[in-house]
């Protein structure tokens, strides 16, 4: 059952879906929309890349690439992108190393990283990287952050990995809470689990495209959230959706013109039928999502090789009124 409260009114918005469907674009769009509503917002990427600072530095198709990138765009720093908007990249390997270093006292990071103990622990504790990454995300949502003079945020937008990896990431607090029943690991895992399973604090949004494979993965995500976390998807954002340009009657009238004109007219008719058929297939997939009680929000297909910041901002404004 879909929830009625706005996703932007929570502490954490988790965005996931099949790889390549535009998760990072949607995360940036929602981050911009929240910032425009004067919510202090941070968008979190989980990888060894920092794509958002480059986007906001103007490294797009209309930029010559010479503009200075924001300070702190690398190295896990919280980077100011725009008014009320920040980003940070959490590298799971680095997060695990920092966590073990904290447990190990004054052992230098380079020594610990090269030790057999670290390599053994990383291999023997599947999900450890995911847990410490989620602890960092949880800490960003806190009003009593560990580090002094840290920024305080109204909203954290998590650009999560693709569906299967995202479910493992989100389930890691339960896994470690079961293994470590006492001590600091158990305490941190429980705090993260409580955040993720509290629908008043956390919203889950799937990004998909209107194709059979992407929609199937979204339905798998819906089932996985229910079975593993007892949570529901707040909605599915269907990216790159084509409009229905012709009704059935219009297409029938166009068909009567077939063969009566020259090559240009026949090419136009072929293009019209092709677009109509693609749109029909896409809207059938959207209907498939709705049959599974998923609220859908469509984002139109953008006929551009690369999205610029103004387009992403426009997408965010459109979505903010709906999610």
The level of helicity is 40-55%
Tally of discrete structural domains:
1
CATH architecture identity: 3-Layer(aba) Sandwich
Q: How large is the share of residues in beta strands?
A: 15-25%
Low-confidence stretches: 59-73
Largest sheet: 8 strands, mixed
CATH superfamily: P-loop containing nucleotide triphosphate hydrolases
How would you name the oligomeric state of the polypeptide chains in this document?
single chain
What global shape is seen? elongated
The average pLDDT score comes to: 82
Radius of gyration: 23 Å
What's the short story on this structure?
The chain is 49% helix and 15% strand. The chain is of the alpha/beta class and 323 residues long. A hairpin with a 2-residue loop joins strand 3 (79-82) and strand 4 (85-90).
What would you say this structure looks like, in words?
- With 323 residues, this protein is an alpha/beta fold.
- It has one domain: P-loop containing nucleotide triphosphate hydrolases (Rossmann fold), CATH 3.40.50.300.
- It has helices spanning 23-36, 51-56, 92-103, 109-113, 116-124, 128-140, 163-179, 183-196, 212-229, 248-256, 263-291, 309-320, and strands at residues 12-17, 41-46, 79-82, 85-90, 155-162, 202-208, 235-241, 296-300.
- It has an eight-stranded mixed β-sheet, with helices on both faces.
- Helix 3 (92-103) packs across helix 6.
- The longest helix has 29 residues, at 263-291.
- The radius of gyration is 23 Å and the shape is elongated.
């Amino acid at each position: 059952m879909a929830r009625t409260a706005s996703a932007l009114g929570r502490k954490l918005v988790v965005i996931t879906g099949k790889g390549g469907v535009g998760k990072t674009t949607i995360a940036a769009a929602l981050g911009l929309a929240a910032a425009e509503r004067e919510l202090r917002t941070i968008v979190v990427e989980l990888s060894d890349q920092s794509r958002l600072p480059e986007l906001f530095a103007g490294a797009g198709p209309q930029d010559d690439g010479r503009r200075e990138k924001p300070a702190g765009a690398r190295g896990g720093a919280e980077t100011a992108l725009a008014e009320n908007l920040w980003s940070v990249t959490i590298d799971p390997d680095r997060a695990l190393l920092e966590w073990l270093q904290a447990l190990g006292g004054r052992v230098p990071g380079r020594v610990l990283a090269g030790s057999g103990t670290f390599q053994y622990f990383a291999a023997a504790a599947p999900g450890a990287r995911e847990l410490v990454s989620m602890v960092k995300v949880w800490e960003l949502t806190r009003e009593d952050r560990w580090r002094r003079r840290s920024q305080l945020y109204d909203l954290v937008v998590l650009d999560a990995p693709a569906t299967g990896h995202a479910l493992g990431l989100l389930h890691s607090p339960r896994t470690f809470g079961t293994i470590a029943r006492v001590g600091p690991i158990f305490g941190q895992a429980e705090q993260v689990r409580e955040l993720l399973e509290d629908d008043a604090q956390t919203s889950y949004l799937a990004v998909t495209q209107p194709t059979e494979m992407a929609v199937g993965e979204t339905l798998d995500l819906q089932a996985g959230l229910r079975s593993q976390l007892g949570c529901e998807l707040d909605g599915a954002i269907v990216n790159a959706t084509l409009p229905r340009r012709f009704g059935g009657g219009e297409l029938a009238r166009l068909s009567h013109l077939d063969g009566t004109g020259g090559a240009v007219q026949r090419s136009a008719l072929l293009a019209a039928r092709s677009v109509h058929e693609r749109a029909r297939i896409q809207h059938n997939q959207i209907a498939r999502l709705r049959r599974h009680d998923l609220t859908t929000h469509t984002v139109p297909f953008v006929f551009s090789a690369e999205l610029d910041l103004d387009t992403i901002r426009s997408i965010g404004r459109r979505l903010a009124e709906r999610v």
